[in-house]
Amino acid sequence: MHLLSISSLGDSQLDQLFARAQDYALDPRSGRDRLAGRTIFNCFYENSTRTAMSFAQAAARLGAQAITLSVEHSSVKKGETLADTARTLGAMGPDALVLRHRQNGAAEEVAALVDCPVVNAGDGTREHPTQALLDALTLRQQFGSLTGRTIAIIGDIAHSRVAHSNAELLPRLGASVRLAGPPALVPADAGSHSIDEAIAGADAVMMLRVQRERLDEDLGDAPGEYLRLYGLTPERLALAAPGAVVLHPGPMNRGVEIADEVADLPGRSLILRQVANGVAMRMAVLELLIAG
Amino acid sequence: MHLLSISSLGDSQLDQLFARAQDYALDPRSGRDRLAGRTIFNCFYENSTRTAMSFAQAAARLGAQAITLSVEHSSVKKGETLADTARTLGAMGPDALVLRHRQNGAAEEVAALVDCPVVNAGDGTREHPTQALLDALTLRQQFGSLTGRTIAIIGDIAHSRVAHSNAELLPRLGASVRLAGPPALVPADAGSHSIDEAIAGADAVMMLRVQRERLDEDLGDAPGEYLRLYGLTPERLALAAPGAVVLHPGPMNRGVEIADEVADLPGRSLILRQVANGVAMRMAVLELLIAG
Amino acid sequence: MHLLSISSLGDSQLDQLFARAQDYALDPRSGRDRLAGRTIFNCFYENSTRTAMSFAQAAARLGAQAITLSVEHSSVKKGETLADTARTLGAMGPDALVLRHRQNGAAEEVAALVDCPVVNAGDGTREHPTQALLDALTLRQQFGSLTGRTIAIIGDIAHSRVAHSNAELLPRLGASVRLAGPPALVPADAGSHSIDEAIAGADAVMMLRVQRERLDEDLGDAPGEYLRLYGLTPERLALAAPGAVVLHPGPMNRGVEIADEVADLPGRSLILRQVANGVAMRMAVLELLIAG
Questions:
Q1: What is the count of structural domains for chain B?
Q2: Which chains touch B (3+ CB pairs under 8 A)?
Q3: Does residue B269 contact residue B245 with C-beta atoms inside 8 Å?
Q4: Residues B67, C70: C-beta atoms closer than 8 Å
Q5: Which residues of B touch C275 (CB under 8 A)?
Q6: Where are the transmembrane segments (chains A, B, C) (predicted)?
Q7: What confidence tens digit (pLDDT) does each residue in C141-184 have?
Q8: Which of A252, B153, B223, C183 has the highest local Cβ count within 10 Å?
């Protein structure tokens, strides 16, 4: 079994993941030795401290070792294809392979070539299922059931695998999702909310990271302009439902897509709880895929 | 005890390594906890994803932790000599030190300065003993005894530590070795086979990776020319014995030294089995050196 | 509890660290499983092979896993503040966080933001407490009590966190410390010894590494001049007490701040014993902070 996308998970698997992850969120040490003697290959072809360390921490807490592929040293530089790298890594017999790759569909391609479970830790602009799962866990801890809740996801919708995976997952859990962002970064089929309309009355606002490259190249706004036009300021958050919570997958650009006062809002910014839940959810995912 | 070269291994040690590695190839989990609590320093001064990860996986399967020295961060950049680095790493008390280094004789130099076993994971153009051992294991799985078998090793013989270690090891196991390659890349004392002559009637053909730098600088052939002149095409493989098998230490340059149809030939391309055997053989090596 | 500076350690904690580290120096395997199931985040924002590997080895010997943050991949490059990185890493629930950072006070800043123990593994030009602790352990093994002993610390005093932490610690253990170096690299309040005066009659001489950048830029001496003017030559060592010992935190610039004959002086150069003691002391530190 692999975790390649949200749609590859059945409802009972979702239930199992949320239940187990919640156990681990409450008692991180309770998974000790569950995957003793196992090895996870942690293959990050794009930089991501937080996700790579989160998987390594999840593996360690289950008693497994994460072996990190250093991309700088990798055979990619020697002209090896992704398929050959995948077959090679698979032949070494890891118990699971975690893959972050800039190419859409990379995880599917790898999964078809190896004998072990593959976790998609982000592929191109498509899917980042463990991020959506940890976001949903965080929202469920806050709201209990998500039925009838409205979640606004704001930012570079077009390029965000976080948005895509959440837009798949959250409606399955009963939530309504509204997508909005700078006009150039929202695809036509995402609906036609303005950012303010998307946030109005929402129970949670999930801000996406804006890529600095995109800031410079596509949007070309003056410093501070992005925050005023498209970012989450206290004024804009005030449009949401009373007590609405704030999420961000990190790393944040403070003063760009999110104002300091919002990022640090006590009791309402769930950003660090997302990080803690990320370890718990990845423990649940690794356990499900490896130990069943 | 160290593993610095093929010639440093006695016949009974060879027997022991092949027997143990075969056990681990059949049951990779059977080594669990054999090296529990041990640490292996994995010191790669040249990039090699596959060898570094293979040793890390081997260590993990024995219950040991591999601690990877990141060369980019290393004291080499601060002007420290290899000898001082070796003494320093040795003083930290690893249970074994695995070294890949571009300098001929680096492993010998390090072994003379530390108290722990040293494994030569490739030094300059000289030796790569665990690669030859895993190649031999793969051939023995295929043929049983290697007595009377002919192995053609094709490519950049002059610069290949893989070729050198195999040319030491395989004859000790009863095989005949024929070395051939582009004329500029075969030393005078390697015999004077053409590539086609070397392959004719061979039971196995081991293709070597051609360094892209060398392709550009020394051989200067047009794209596709290398494969036609020096690579393993289906036509050239047809010169070998019926059912002859194909090996490659990886990573492959597909369409350069090896054609796709050959690299992926079912039942005859043993390239992925080499990778799997690499982990098993390195388990056997680490166990022999550390636990005796 | 954190280890941020020497002054943050009480006398009884010092005693405990020295006793425990001495146990581990004598029997490195005696800590096995003491921190089983724990994870240490090893966060090095400056390159340091030896310190990072020393902490990783210490963690492994206690049964813990060190998870290394790769700074090249880190969110720093994505514009994340140190505070946000700290909070994020802390939210992942490591059992301790080891930090090397070029910014003075970085460890204090991080410690205020996370729930786990923080070990300062060097911050800017300020403190490197585990280095001073291992230096003191090494001197105590040599001399027993340090009361009445004189330690000369020679080199770039102005920029050396090693000097600063030792200048805090060694006097607390009863030693006199004399600081000296190239005039441009010694702050006015460090006393006005010449190097020869500082070494005269000293029981131990601790040479500091001179940064190559500084050699080029500030001192501008001809090759070999540094050693003659400011380095530890056999002639200069002869000014010290008979049998005086030599320390260096490494990596050494041989022929710059220290002559080969001195670096390798049998029985009197304690440089490799410092390295071994580094692992033992870091085991003691991790154990104290995590297990109490």
A1: 2
A2: A, C
A3: yes
A4: no
A5: 88, 91-92
A6: none
A7: 999 999 999 999 999 999 999 999 999 999 999 999 999 999 98
A8: B153
Count of all residues that appear for chain B in the document? 292
Backbone angles phi, psi at A69, to 5 degrees: -80, 125
Asked, for residue B1, whether it belongs to a domain, the answer is no
Look up the ipTM and state it.
0.95
| Domain identity same for A133 and A162 | yes
In a domain, residue C283? The reply is: yes
pLDDT in tens, C180-219: 999 989 998 877 789 999 999 999 999 999 877 666 655 5
C50 is catalytic: yes
Which of B92, B98, B115 to mutate to test binding with chain C, by most C CBs within 10 Å of its CB? B92
Neighbours of chain A (3+ CB pairs under 8 A): B, C
Q: In Å, what is the CA distance from C272 to each residue of A127, B38, B85, B190, C248?
A: 50, 21, 11, 44, 9
A157 shares its domain with A261: yes
Do A104 and A202 fall within a single domain? no
Please give the annotated binding residues of C for carbamoyl phosphate, written as ranges: 50-51, 100, 128, 131, 250-251
Q: A237 and A267: one domain?
A: yes
Residue A133 lies in a domain: yes
| B123 lies in the same domain as B14 | yes
Structural domain including B95 reads 6-127+278-291
CB C150 within 8 A of CB C179: no
Whichever domain contains C143, its CATH number is: 3.40.50.1370
Tokens of C131: 């280095």
CB contact under 8 A, C28 and B93: yes
